[in-house]
Structure to design on (495 residues):
């Protein structure tokens, strides 16, 4: 995720053959492709969350997690060989399948292995570790840019043709950055050698409940994926009118919801027959999956519709501007430094949010995080019109607030589901929120056209600051929605 946020714009510009400062029409084209590829990635993550979550509940957390990491690592690296934005989108979709699954499986495993009193700290560390990856991407990006000339000579020494070498190092070496995404694949050896399987899952397997996951049920996931594909299509095709887009979006959401829930519903039905238990569990599980998806959707849409565009905006603010001696060091790498500042803020925010949830309660913490997020995003986009230290400090604070949910969600979502459906249930809840976020992300391109005459308080007319300010209103929805959710503070992880 961190790699594409930083190099995606350069990648699309390279593949479309756009050189220099893009014209307004080219800018709209870039924004459309960037938004569509992000949306496709989010849809892939939603699908992968259910697919690999199902696999984790069926064959075990560790084995399924190894497969998910290999999937996203290999296909992220293959993105470096893409020739068109469409090829890039397809590869990003497959990579996202593994990424969505890895979140579902990793969170389930960590929450089941650590005792109840450590859950808040471990949830915060999960979110912090992800953002440490964002920070690492920024550092590697700066180092790679500084060493591109050396890389060019090294690649030539390996016997690669001159045209191939030029292709790899073009546009700040975005292809090399994507290829570095294969490195996490090596972690799978350590997973299989050193990471223990969840004892809670092994108990479920011993009782025979894992056999109720049937492969044919995955057909529902395949059908469900048609829904998000429909949503992406109606918003990517500019010839489709607004009424049809709204109808297509609602239809796509219904198809995705039914399809992705189907494997869980069938599993619960079989478990009900096997144990002769009450059917209340099925209804409660489905309701919690949908509620968790909405809570995740608020957080994900807030991030992908606002702070994820900060790197792009930083790059725009530095185009054609005279560099002062004070800013010369960071001005050469506006996207990288913006990502690093937001990542450092996110590391602090994720740990703090999880601990806050343990202190004042899950619901109160979520509501407060929504309030802080909308305030920080508006301050970042509305009150800044140039790149500099104040801009980076505002990006840091926006990172603290908007990314804090990724420490809260690993704490709360596992507490909603029993062991036998935890990976699939929370995989759906978190990753289905990505479909909601994808819908919002696709609006950025449309908003860019509509807000051209609007102006920020700092005097910036139209563009990403205005569009992202509109999107962050989703946090208001979250402030009300959280009070429909159960409070789980002080309760043990459900068996």
């Amino acid at each position: 995720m961190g790699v594409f946020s930083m190099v995606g714009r350069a990648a699309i510009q390279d593949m479309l053959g756009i050189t220099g400062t893009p014209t307004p029409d080219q800018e709209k084209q870039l924004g459309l492709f960037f938004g569509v590829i992000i949306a496709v990635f989010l849809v892939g993550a939603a699908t992968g969350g259910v697919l690999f979550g199902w696999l984790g509940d069926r064959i075990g957390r560790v084995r399924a997690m190894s497969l998910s990491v290999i999937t996203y690592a290999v296909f992220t690296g293959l993105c470096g060989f893409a020739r068109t934005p469409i090829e890039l989108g397809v590869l990003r979709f497959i990579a996202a399948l593994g990424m969505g699954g890895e979140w579902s499986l990793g969170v389930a495993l960590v929450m089941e292995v650590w005792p109840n009193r450590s859950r808040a700290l471990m949830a915060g560390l999960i979110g912090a570790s992800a953002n440490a990856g964002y920070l690492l991407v920024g550092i590697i990006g700066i180092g790679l840019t500084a060493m591109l000339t050396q890389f060019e000579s090294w690649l030539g020494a390996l016997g690669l043709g001159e045209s191939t070498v030029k292709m790899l190092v073009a546009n700040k070496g975005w292809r090399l950055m994507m290829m570095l995404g294969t490195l996490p694949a090596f972690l799978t050896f350590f997973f299989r050698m050193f990471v223990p399987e969840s004892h809670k899952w092994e108990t479920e397997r011993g009782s025979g409940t894992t056999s109720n996951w049937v492969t044919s049920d995955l057909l529902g996931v395949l059908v469900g994926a048609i829904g998000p594909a429909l949503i992406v299509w109606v918003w990517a095709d500019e010839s489709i009118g607004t009424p049809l887009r709204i109808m297509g979006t609602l239809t796509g959401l219904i198809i995705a919801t039914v399809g992705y829930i189907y494997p869980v519903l069938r599993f619960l039905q079989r478990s009900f027959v096997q144990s002769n238990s009450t059917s209340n569990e099925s209804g409660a599980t489905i309701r919690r999956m949908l509620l968790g998806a909405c809570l995740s959707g608020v957080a994900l849409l807030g991030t992908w519709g606002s702070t994820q565009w900060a790197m792009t905006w930083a790059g725009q603010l530095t185009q054609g501007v005279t560099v002062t001696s004070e800013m010369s060091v960071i001005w050469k790498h506006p996207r990288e430094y913006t990502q690093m500042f937001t990542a450092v803020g996110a590391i602090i925010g994720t740990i703090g949010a999880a601990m806050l949830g343990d202190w004042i309660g899950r619901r109160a913490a979520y509501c407060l995080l929504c309030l802080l997020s909308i305030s920080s995003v508006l301050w970042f986009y509305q009150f800044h019109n140039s790149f500099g230290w104040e801009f980076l400090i505002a990006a840091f604070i926006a990172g603290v607030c908007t990314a804090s949910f990724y420490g809260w969600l690993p704490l709360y979502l596992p507490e909603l589901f029993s062991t036998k459906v935890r990976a699939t249930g929370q995989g759906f809840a978190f990753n289905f929120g990505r479909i909601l976020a994808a819908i919002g992300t696709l609006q950025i391109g449309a908003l860019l056209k509509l807000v051209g005459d609007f102006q920020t308080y700092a005097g910036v007319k139209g563009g990403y600051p205005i569009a992202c300010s509109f999107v962050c209103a989703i946090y208001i929805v979250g402030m009300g929605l959280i009070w429909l959710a159960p409070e789980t503070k002080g309760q043990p992880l459900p068996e």
Observations:
- Residues 24-59 form the longest helix (36 residues).
- Residues 2-195+217-484 form a domain with the Growth Hormone; Chain: A; fold (CATH 1.20.1250.20).
- DSSP finds 22 helices and no strands in the chain.
